[in-house]
Design goal:
single chain; 193 residues; mainly alpha; Arc Repressor Mutant, subunit A; Tetracycline Repressor, domain 2; 2 domains; 9 helices; DNA-binding; TetR/AcrR family transcriptional regulator; HTH-type_TetR-like_transc_reg
């Protein structure tokens, strides 16, 4: 009969949350390339073994921390119209991309993923795909209502791309009304004429 783990073998949720916060803060300060497990452990006030009990290495630790911050930030609106649902999604994307940690981490991790296919795959599996899966029902409902004129995957791409490009690549602040204008432009691109 297997004994129930006790002591250090039990992963304590509060400690995991503390470590996750430390990962994100260290990642925002140091970047992925210079992120060290020792620095994360020190910031979290734990030993390195606490990190390795949770994740086998840096890529898994980073993607798990990013997932914790990113996936719950996706709303699943059901207002009854594509335009209103799009507006909620656009606002949520804006809030996510301008989060103080995500704004510093995402461009760095994205560029690192270009050079590191394993990291790219892990980010897709733990952050990108789950975020898309959460938003997908919005577009599935739009298809059922006859509002969506394009493939759901294309619609999912289009919601985030303009904001990411403007905020993370061009570093241009949003003007008043930009999110409403973007929502209207997306609606024209996605809807039946």
């Amino acid at each position: 009969m297997r004994r129930t783990p006790t002591g250090a073998a039990v992963l304590q949720p509060a400690k995991t949350a503390s470590i996750t916060t430390a990962v994100l803060e260290e990642l925002a300060e140091s970047g992925y390339g210079r992120l060290a497990m020792e620095a994360v452990a020190r910031r979290a006030g734990v030993g390195k073994s606490a990190l390795y009990r949770r994740w086998p290495g840096k890529p898994e630790m980073v993607t798990a921390a990013l997932s914790e911050l990113s996936v719950p930030a996706v709303p699943t609106p059901d207002t009854g119209t594509l335009r209103a649902d799009l507006r909620v999604l656009v606002e949520a994307m804006h809030e996510w991309l301008t989060h103080p940690l995500i704004a510093r981490i995402l461009p760095d991790v994205s560029s690192e993923a270009v050079r590191n296919p394993d990291l790219a795959d892990a980010l897709r599996r733990t952050v990108g795909d789950p975020r898309r899966d959460m938003a997908r029902p919005v577009f599935d409902r739009a298809v059922a209502r006859g509002e969506l004129a394009v493939d759901v995957d294309l619609a999912l791409d289009l919601v985030g791309a303009p904001l990411y490009w403007r905020l993370s690549v061009r570093h241009v602040p949003l003007t008043p009304g930009y999110l409403n204008d973007l929502t209207d432009a997306l609606l024209r691109a996605l809807s039946h004429p």
